[in-house]
Amino acid sequence: MELGERLKDLRLRRGFTQEQAGQILGVSAQAVSKWERGLTLPDVLMMPRIAVLYRISLDELYDMDAYYSRKHNEEYNERLRQAKQEGDPDRVFRLIADEIELRPDSFGEYLHLADYALKHGMTAKPYMEQLILFAARAERWCREEKLRHAIFRRMVKLCSSAEDPDICAHTKEYYEKLPYFRNIRETVTQYVLDGDELTQEENRNILYMLQSAADLIRARMYRRNGSAEENLRYLRMSSQILEAVTEEKFTGFYEIPLLLDYYSMAKLYTELQEPENAALCIRRILAALQRQISPDSRKNPSEFAEESQPYGYKLYWASGLELLEQMERADEFAPFKEDIRKLYEEYRMYFYKEKK
Asked: How many other C-beta atoms can be found within 10 angstroms of the C-beta atom of residue 2?
């Protein structure tokens, strides 16, 4: 059955007139009539909407079982193999692009085309305009998040290498479509940022990965619900990872989990009757929080301490204030109660004054 006849059959099955179908699709009844008579074809971007309207898949709409037989796939792969063997990148690009036009929901081919263009440096404007069009379709219709992100990463690299300034301007657009603080964005950061911005972004990614590793260790500790000795072993592992952050002088948001580890370790050391180790953890907490209100910090405030963080986390100073409140109430910290109370008052007065 020809596509026009199939469109007519599907419309009649759903009980729509040409006017009703056109109104829902945002086209005229005349356009629907021309499709059904085979005079014109719907735009490729219209096909998913038609499939939704008639409640069928794109494969069913195109009658893929008949149209894309084993023979078709064999012929396509053979033509592609020959073009690659002959060293004709332009022909390979066009073959893959034509296949995408015929099968617009084959998003794996979108990635295939982007990879091929990247491998052969095909960043001239005609190639890039085609790739940008396909990336827009993938963003709108591809339901596989990982596949969309893979396409966007390739587009960052391709656009950043383009000589045409209008194409190059798309680089940051694709970069910003990638999730923040996940093992996705950092792989293409260098194509978008440079200088201090790149260093800062790399630092953030390193810190986030360290934080994630420490979180996994703590999650295992909570899940096993072991003895004090076992929990202390997990907390030591977690704190050693987070200490790598503070050694590089990065503080603020990423230091709070380390201070919470010290807090839990101090309580466990007290339980295990190791007061010297408990005292060492307490002093580390107080020293870190004191540093935030030191003269040097006032002159050069930490960017992490002064800004809010993603995913709804609190400001560093607000978390620090809560930690001091917990320490003041805990019996295990009684020998340091006076020091804790004093720092709490200084900390609260400084930050509340600064935030007014």
From this structure: 10
Q: Which DSSP letter does residue 41 get?
A: -
CA 125 remoteness from chain centre: 28
How far CA 197 is from CA of 202, 278, 310, in Å, comes to: 9, 40, 18
Delimit the domains of the chain by residue range. 3-67, 70-191, 195-355
Architecture of domain 3-67: Orthogonal Bundle (1.10)
**Token digits of residue 80:** 């592609």
Helix (H, G, I), strand (E, B), or coil: what is residue 10? helix
Please report the sign of the dihedral spanned by the C-alpha atoms of residue 335, residue 319, residue 240, residue 342: negative
| C-alpha span between 25 and 8 (Å, rounded) | 14
CATH number assigned to the domain covering 70-191: 1.25.40
CA 155 to chain centre: 15
| Identity of the amino acid at 178 | L
Say how far apart CA 271 and CA 250 lie, in whole Å.
31
Nearest to 326 by CA among 228, 260, 252: 260
Decide if 3-67 and 70-191 have a common fold: no
pTM recorded for the entire structure? 0.50
Residue 36 · residue 7 · CB < 8 Å = yes
* pLDDT tens digit sequence for 148-166: 999 999 999 999 999 999 9
Tens digits of residue pLDDT in 246-291: 554 444 555 778 888 999 999 999 999 999 999 999 999 998 888 8
